[in-house]
């Protein structure tokens, strides 16, 4: 990989972009998991990799405590084999991906790391356009698996690139974002769009002029219009099409996911301190007891806080909040680096997205943590000790 970087840095960046994006594709699990292990084998022979691991563990140790809690929850779970399988697939392997991609961007200068991130965005948008043109609306999920997964990918990809958007490219950026949001077919994304525009407004700092404010208002009004249109063509409750609220807020609050939050909260109250064991598959097995589970109950809480409460109790929720706080603090301490803003936005918008959904899926976790590693690497290069004997990843001269 180092030789590839020195010979053809542009190709190196493109390959790294494709590898980070690969879990988003509708391909076999082994195909997008194998590169992680191959890159990991290369990494373990590099001294800086161990320095990086030590740096991450020392700065974000609560994440490792959370990993350990999820693992030991197999001791009190009804289905320890399911817990172990979920822990391996949805936490361990994705976390290894974070370490690998963080390591491979650690020595990149900001411009080269930006190339990798731009490559992810460009490939994602290009494949979305090709999928739409070739397969039509809805057929895009032949490439990106399904609309729930695709929605998370869109949020993560565009929030990561948000700090690098220039004034001249905003029209292109928001046009691509709106197009991808349209392809998701989901309502919640149109609530996120004005929030992303506001985050862009804050990140741009001194460019708070009337044009920027007008752009914010335009995006907010556009989102409202789209939601009003969806209200006229889509039922508020997927399980009861006869529910037809008159107002837009009532329409959004009538979503079938929201009124089931109370049911999942009651399920969590059965084991309030440590939960029933990690994993959505374990939770489903626990409550269904091997029987038929009605689709109207949904297979998970569709809320990351509730999911954590059901699986790992109040201890798990406290650790989740504390881990997020530690990560936010770490990125906030390096805001002179644009990738620190990227990391903040990825964390924030991933959290907002999963207030109405579940992230405990292997593809989603591998992509999310891979993108987080891509943002974290350039922020940690000053904290990881440099080895005099090891050449650095610098621009080829």
TrEMBL record:
Keywords: Membrane, Transmembrane, Transmembrane helix. Residues 176-320 form the O-antigen ligase-related domain. It is found in: Membrane. InterPro entries: O-antigen_ligase-rel_domated, WaaL-like. The chain crosses the membrane at residues 60-79, 91-109, 116-137, 149-165, 172-192, 212-230, 305-327, 339-356. The keyword Transmembrane helix applies. Coiled coil: none annotated. This is O-antigen polymerase. It comes from Pseudogulbenkiania ferrooxidans 2002.
């Amino acid at each position: 990989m180092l030789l590839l970087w020195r010979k053809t840095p542009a190709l190196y960046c493109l390959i790294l972009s494709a590898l980070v994006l690969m879990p988003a594709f509708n391909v076999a699990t082994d195909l997008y998991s194998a590169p992680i292990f191959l890159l990991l084998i290369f990494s373990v022979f590099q001294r800086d990799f161990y320095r990086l691991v030590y740096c991450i563990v020392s700065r974000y140790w609560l994440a490792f405590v959370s990993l350990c809690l999820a693992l030991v929850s197999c001791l009190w779970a009804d289905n320890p084999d399911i817990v172990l399988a979920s822990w391996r697939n949805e936490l361990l392997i994705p976390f290894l991906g974070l370490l690998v991609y963080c390591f491979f961007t650690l020595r990149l200068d900001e411009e080269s790391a930006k190339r990798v991130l731009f490559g992810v965005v460009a490939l994602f948008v290009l494949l979305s356009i090709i999928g739409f043109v070739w397969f039509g609306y809805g057929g895009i999920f032949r490439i990106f698996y399904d609309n729930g997964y695709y929605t998370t990918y869109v949020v993560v990809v565009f929030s990561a690139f948000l700090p690098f958007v220039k004034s001249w490219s905003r029209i292109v950026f928001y046009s691509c974002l709106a197009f991808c949001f349209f392809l998701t077919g989901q309502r919640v994304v149109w609530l996120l769009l004005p929030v992303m525009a506001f985050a862009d407004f804050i990140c741009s700092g001194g460019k708070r002029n009337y044009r920027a404010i007008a752009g914010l208002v335009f995006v907010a009004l556009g989102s409202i219009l789209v939601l009003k249109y969806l209200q006229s063509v889509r039922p508020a409750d997927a399980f009861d099409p006869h529910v037809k609220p008159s107002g837009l807020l009532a329409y959004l609050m009538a979503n079938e996911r929201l009124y089931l939050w109370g049911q999942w909260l009651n399920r969590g109250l059965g084991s309030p301190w440590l939960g029933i064991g990690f994993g959505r598959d374990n939770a489903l097995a626990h409550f269904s007891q091997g029987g038929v589970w009605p689709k109207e109950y949904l297979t998970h809480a569709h809320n990351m806080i509730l999911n954590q409460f059901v699986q790992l109790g109040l201890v798990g929720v406290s650790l989740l909040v504390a881990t997020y706080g530690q990560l936010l603090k770490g990125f906030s301490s390096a805001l002179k680096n644009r990738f620190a803003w990227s990391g903040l936005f990825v964390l924030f918008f991933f959290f907002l997205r999963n207030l109405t959904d579940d992230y405990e899926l292997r593809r989603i976790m591998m992509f999310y943590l891979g993108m987080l590693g891509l943002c974290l690497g350039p922020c940690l290069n000053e904290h990881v000790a440099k080895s005099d004997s090891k050449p650095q990843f610098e621009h080829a001269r």
